[in-house]
Each structure stands twice: as structure tokens, then as C-alpha cells.
Design goal:
This protein has about 400 residues and is mostly helical. About 65% of the residues lie in helices and about 0% in strands. It contains 23 helices and no strands.
């Protein structure tokens, strides 16, 4: 997925058809420097659906679109901060609502006057249907559902090896949560596992890639977990030393401190012992109310409705389809036309036939420097031959 600069470089090299070593090396380097895969796609989605700066991205449109079409809000995690399991969580969200993500990106495209994607948006949109990226998303989702957040539990290594040797325990036709998960409990998101199973037949590389992932994860986790074993360095730390070496879970200190205090104060234990179901309902309602007060919500909805109205999605799609059809018919007519290669023959052509000859070289020869009809058509019949000869001399004379 080349960024804006690398895309421009590759377009130049491919358009000019420069086979020199310098051009080839530049193109190779541009491709190698371009990131790809599910992790990078999740990051691109974060820049679109949940940008850390409110004035950038499409987060307001994202929230409105999903709430309108699904009847609920869908959270896209903040990918600007390092957070454990965040890419796995995003992979599950994308897989579960992939069709809606695709429709949302088309909405973003159609809501612009230019009817175009940015390079970032185009890369994300393409990855939503790319088999390689979907394979990686499925692997991340399986990893999350099979292991959850066990951190460095020594028995986890055994389960990695078990799944590597028999993937059917997790994704086979008879697989259940008790055979596939590390703690033998229910899947956190069984609907995601069903999506993965439905996709696997279309992803030829999935089994080999998942096995390779588990093999690599087993090797890496064995190395990482060595300091966490019973009697190891971490196990022997005193409470004072543990507090001294504490590290924030994310680089967003507000979020990190909140999670730390939640755990340190044993808030979850207190809540389970003291809060009733109606208390939980109240807390969730109050949290939603504080997150979006009525005035801000109303203003936000007005803005996104204006954008939606401007988009005119169905109308735009039909117009786009008509434009594409007209272009195809023109190109077919050009391909069927007879090429005129001599000046004497050109002198016998009328204005319409002259334009067809120019179209032949614009379309077949991919010479974009030849102006379109509206910019090159002579104003009078007497000027048509001179105009064509001028263009003939300037653009495509053998």
C-alpha cells in the first residue's frame, strides 16, 4: 500500500515506461518502503474512523453512518496509542461489519465534490476485499478468540502448540469454544468466529499462514515468557519494586492511569459486590449522556445529515455508472475506427472524423497531452483541417 509520495513515483515510472536501472531501483525501493498487511490496514482505518484530531478523519460520519445503518454505535479503537490487543479487536470489528465498512467508504467517496478517494482512503477500501489482508484479519481474530488476554501464563505455550498441530480444534466443522479456547470458556464474539469460518473457503492461504503464525508465536512467546516463569526475575520482585518499575499500558496517560486505578482499587470486585443490575444500567446510561450532551449531538447530526444529502449516494452511483458506460461506448467506437496515417488523407476528413483520429491516439496511444474534444474542437468548419494538421504535427505525426 504505497503512500502518496510512493504512489506518485510509481505512476511516473509506469507511465514513462522507463526501464533504466535508476528507475527500476527507485520503483523497487518505493514498493519495499510501502507498508502492507492487516496491522497497517487497521492503522489506516483508525486514521479514517477514529482520528486523534477531531478535525481530521471521518469519525463523525463513521459514528452516524453505522448508527443509522446498524441501529447501534460501533467502536473503532484508537490506533494512535499503543494498546494491548488493539489490532486484534479492530480485526474482529472489520470482519464482523465488513460489508458496512465497504458501503461507508463508498459513501465517503460519493460525498465529495471530486468523487475521489485520498490515497489513504483508497488503500483502506481496497484492503477490505484483499484476500491476503483478510487472511491476516482472520488470523488475528482467531488469536483473540482463542487466547483472549492471558498475558504470560505458562500453560498458554502448550495451547499454541496444540492448535498448531490441529487447527480444526478452533476452526474445524466440529470445533467448539471448549476445544479451541485457552481457558475452555465461551468465545467473546462467537459471531466473529462464524464470519471467519465462512471466509476460510475463499482464502486459499489461510491454513498455511495460520500454522506459520502459531509456530512463530510459540517461538516468540517462549522467549518473552522466560522472565515471567515461577522463580524468575519478575516473580521475585517485591511490591515496592513492582510499583517502581510500573509502565503505563498505553501512551495515552489518561487512559492508562484510569485502567491502572481501576485495577489497583479493585473497582471490578467492588462493583460485583455492591452494584445491582439497575445500577449498571444507570452507570452505562450516564456515561453515554456525559459523552454526548443533547446539544452537541443535535448539532453533530445536522452536520452529517447535510453531508448525507450532499452525497446523494444512489443518484451519484447511477451517474457514475452512466459515465462509465458512455466512456466504454466511446472507446469501443474508437477501437473500431480506421486509423488515418497520412496528411493527404487527413485533409479529406470532416471535423467529426478528425476528432476520432485524435481519440485513437489519446486512447490507444495513451497520450494524455492531446486535449479532449471540448478543448480542441475548432470553432469553424474552415479551421478544422488546419487544427487537425497542427495537432498531427504536435502530438502524433510518425
Amino acid at each position: 500500500m504505497p503512500n502518496k509520495d510512493n504512489t506518485a513515483l510509481l505512476d511516473i515510472v509506469e507511465t514513462v515506461v522507463d526501464t533504466s536501472s535508476a528507475a527500476t531501483n527507485a520503483a523497487t525501493q518505493a514498493r519495499e518502503m510501502s507498508n502492507a498487511g492487516s496491522v497497517h490496514t487497521a492503522m489506516l482505518g483508525g486514521l479514517i474512523c477514529n482520528h486523534k484530531y477531531n478535525k481530521k478523519g471521518q469519525q463523525d460520519n463513521f459514528t452516524w453512518y453505522f448508527e443509522t445503518h446498524l441501529g447501534k454505535r460501533v467502536a473503532y479503537l484508537d490506533m494512535s496509542n499503543t494498546c494491548y490487543q488493539s489490532h486484534c479487536e479492530v480485526a474482529q470489528v472489520i470482519l464482523q461489519y465488513r460489508d458496512t465498512f465497504i458501503n461507508f467508504m463508498e459513501y465517503v467517496h460519493n460525498s465529495k465534490d471530486s468523487q475521489t478517494f485520498t490515497i489513504l482512503e483508497l488503500n483502506f477500501y481496497r484492503c477490505l476485499t484483499d484476500p491476503g489482508t483478510l487472511t491476516e484479519f482472520c488470523i488475528l481474530a482467531c488469536k483473540s478468540q482463542a487466547f483472549g488476554r492471558p498475558y504470560m501464563h505458562h500453560k498458554m505455550l502448550t495451547h499454541y502448540g496444540t492448535l498448531r498441530d490441529n487447527l480444526d480444534l478452533l476452526i474445524g466443522p466440529n470445533a467448539t469454544a471448549s476445544t479451541g479456547t485457552f481457558d475452555k470458556s465461551e468465545f467473546d464474539h462467537p459471531e466473529v468466529m462464524q464470519v471467519v469460518k465462512d471466509l476460510i473457503p475463499t482464502l486459499s492461504a489461510f491454513h498455511g499462514a495460520f500454522e506459520a503464525y502459531l509456530e512463530g508465536a510459540l517461538e516468540t512467546m517462549t522467549r518473552f515468557s522466560s522472565e515471567f516463569v515461577k522463580g524468575g526475575v519478575v516473580d521475585q520482585l517485591t511490591p515496592e519494586e513492582r510499583k517502581k518499575y510500573f509502565m503505563h499500558a498505553t501512551n495515552d496517560l489518561n487512559e492508562s492511569n484510569t485502567r491502572y486505578m481501576y485495577q489497583d482499587n479493585q473497582t471490578e470486585v467492588w462493583a460485583e459486590q455492591n452494584l445491582r443490575e439497575d445500577d449498571h444500567v444507570y452507570v452505562r446510561r450516564e456515561a453515554r449522556s456525559r459523552r454526548k450532551n443533547a446539544g452537541a449531538r443535535e448539532k453533530e447530526m445536522k452536520m452529517v445529515h447535510v453531508t448525507a444529502k450532499k452525497a446523494g449516494i444512489e443518484k451519484t452511483k447511477k451517474k457514475k455508472q452512466k459515465t462509465a458506460g458512455d466512456k466504454k461506448r466511446r472507446e469501443d467506437a474508437v477501437l473500431e475506427a480506421r486509423y488515418v496515417g497520412s496528411e493527404s488523407e487527413v485533409n479529406k476528413l470532416n471535423l467529426k472524423e478528425i476528432q476520432v483520429q485524435l481519440d485513437i491516439h489519446r486512447i490507444c496511444g495513451k497520450d494524455t497531452s492531446i486535449p479532449m474534444k471540448k478543448n480542441s474542437e475548432p470553432t469553424g468548419g474552415g479551421a478544422s483541417t488546419a487544427e487537425c494538421n497542427t495537432l498531427l504535427e504536435r502530438y502524433w505525426r510518425p
